[in-house]
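Fresh eyes needed here. I'd like your take on this protein's tokenised backbone:
***
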Amino acid sequence: MINDTNLHKEIDLIQGCINRMASNSFMLKGWTISLVAVVLALTEDRANPLFLLCCIFIPLLCFWYLDAFFLRTEKMYRKLYEWVLEERKKGNVEYQYDLNPHRFNNAVESCCRIMFSKTLSVFYGIPTLVVLLVILYHLKDLLCQCFCGC
């Protein structure tokens, strides 16, 4: 039978991992907003669409995926937390202090499903849409300049 001290230490370790994943997710959101705001604010009126694509759009998609990855990992740690609480009550000491959450891979939705969840879709979808519209606007100006001489 596991004692309360060991159980508290184990769930504290898991809770630390959950907090770290949540913190990483929060920081990514901050970096995303900062990146989009700064690059759009400092972009010239006739910016190169390829420049915008490289400076904003690609990192935005990468941050979106990383945020989904951290949220998925956090969910796996939550499943581990629940499992530890259930199994330790039964006296099962299997996987004691094992902080690998990948045993719960199948219990949590995929990164792609999490990426397109309601919250992440809105948070990252709006800046993505704005960036795409700005890129299309600059691309239209560039094409008009090349072919029409506007």
In short: The longest helix spans residues 49-89. The chain has four helices and no strands. The mean pLDDT is 89.
